[in-house]
Structures are given as structure tokens and as C-alpha cells.
Amino acid sequence: MKDFIKLLKNIFSREPFEQDIHIRFSLSVEQIVFIILVLLGLIYVFIH
Question: Where are the transmembrane segments (predicted)?
């Protein structure tokens, strides 16, 4: 869970570190889909 929060922070940060980029690209498809669904859910909540 800590890694997930760290990834979210790095996605929104302007200057991600090389290690974080490596972690981001090594994500599995399921994790990427999960992150997209979470982000869409947050956007939906903020709009409504």
C-alpha cells in the first residue's frame, strides 16, 4: 500500500526519480488498470 501511495505521488510530481520511473514501467497490467480505475473514481468524486 505504501508503494501504491508513493506511485501516486510520483505520477503527480513534475520530477520523478529514475528509480520511480523504473518501478512505474515494471508494473503489471492489473496494477496499471487498478491505478486507472482509482484515478477515474477520484475524478468522478471531485466532479460530483
Answer: 21-47
The three cell numbers of residue 3 are: 508503494
Q: What is the DSSP letter of 14?
A: S
Q: What is the pTM of this model?
A: 0.41
Domain limits for position 36: 2-47
* Domains held by the chain: number: 1
Residue 9: closest CA among 33, 29, 39: 39
Plot region of 28 (φ>0 → left; ψ -120 to 50 → alpha; else → beta): beta
Where do the DSSP E strands lie in the chain?
none
| Whole-angstrom distance, CA of residue 8 vs CA of residue 5 | 5
- Residue 1 is given by DSSP the state -
